[in-house]
């Protein structure tokens, strides 16, 4: 199960979503399918955990539910509003809408992934964007559901970076809905607490064994593995990192120089707009991680 979990989860849920929409059903059916994915993700994390402690709430469960509920509701409203917005958008009319739905999604995912990855990369370079993105990085444990935990303004920026160019090309509403669903499934896998063994698939998909390193709390050591779907973008950016011999500790995640980042949902929404951001000395890099990074640098 540890070997097949990620590819099975990814292909089964996205494949089912394509079949549902291709059969002429409303994309509203994708919501119960996403809830089923969250339920299966949670069950598998308890059955095959990477870190046992990460399955237990740290006073953050309600907050994560609120983040996910608000963000996914905004996604649904945005998709529903496409027919109202489309007449006001200039369009190139070059989207291959005559292709089968599955092929259109296969084209949309890497194109959106590039835009989302670049916004994500910029969010670690711009102090202004980082204020919004820090909400997501404040997590001190990783489990699939908190992949959906983001400041809504930062989610909006990522969504614009990933989908606005496609909408200008003429991306239809049903493909947009499938793309949003696929992103949610990928976020569940990226932040999963399942002890998944992905082997060579790490070169293809940016799943949890890669993305956990992005959440390291040790300053710039977490400025790696920005891609949402495909790690090829990180290889092109020079930010790819894979440490197969380093097992993350329970307390390796978070924002090392801001350990007291607010946990409450409302406080997190307001935190980016505070004038001064309290900081502490950077967290000390553990010896095991330092050695693993040194070995990786030799490769």
TrEMBL record:
GO terms for cellular component: membrane. It holds the Pfam family FA_hydroxylase. The chain crosses the membrane at residues 5-23. GO terms for biological process: lipid biosynthetic process. GO terms for molecular function: iron ion binding; oxidoreductase activity. It is found in: Membrane. Residues 106-239 form the Fatty acid hydroxylase domain. Keywords: Membrane, Transmembrane, Transmembrane helix. This is Fatty acid hydroxylase domain-containing protein.
């Amino acid at each position: 199960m540890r070997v097949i979990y990620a590819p099975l989860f990814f292909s089964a849920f996205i494949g089912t979503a394509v079949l549902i929409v291709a059969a002429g059903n409303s994309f509203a059916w994708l919501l119960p399918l996403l809830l089923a994915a969250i339920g299966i993700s949670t069950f598998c994390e308890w059955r095959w955990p990477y870190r046992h402690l990460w399955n237990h709430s740290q006073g953050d469960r309600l907050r994560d539910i609120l983040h996910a509920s608000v963000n996914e509701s905004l996604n649904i409203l945005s998709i529903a509003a496409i027919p109202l917005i489309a007449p006001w958008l200039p369009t190139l009319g070059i989207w291959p809408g005559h292709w089968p739905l599955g092929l259109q999604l296969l084209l949309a995912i890497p194109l959106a992934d590039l835009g989302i990855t670049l916004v994500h990369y910029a969010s670690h370079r711009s102090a202004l964007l980082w204020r919004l993105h820090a909400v997501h990085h404040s997590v001190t444990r990783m489990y699939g559901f908190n992949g959906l935990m983001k400041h809504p303004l930062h989610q909006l920026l990522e969504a614009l970076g990933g989908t606005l160019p496609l909408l200008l090309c003429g991306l239809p509403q049903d493909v947009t809905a499938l793309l949003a669903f696929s992103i949610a499934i990928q976020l569940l896998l990226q932040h999963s607490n399942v002890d998944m063994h992905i082997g060579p698939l790490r070169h293809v998909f940016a799943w949890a064994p890669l993305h956990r390193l992005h959440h390291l709390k040790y300053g710039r050591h977490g400025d790696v593995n920005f891609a949402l779907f495909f790690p090829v973008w990180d290889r092109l950016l020079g930010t790819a990192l894979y440490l197969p011999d380093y097992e993350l500790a329970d307390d390796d995640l978070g924002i090392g120089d801001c350990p007291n980042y607010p946990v409450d949902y409302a406080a997190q929404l307001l935190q980016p707009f505070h004038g001064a951001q309290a900081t502490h000395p950077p967290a000390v890099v553990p010896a095991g991680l330092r050695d693993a990074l040194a070995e990786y640098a030799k490769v």
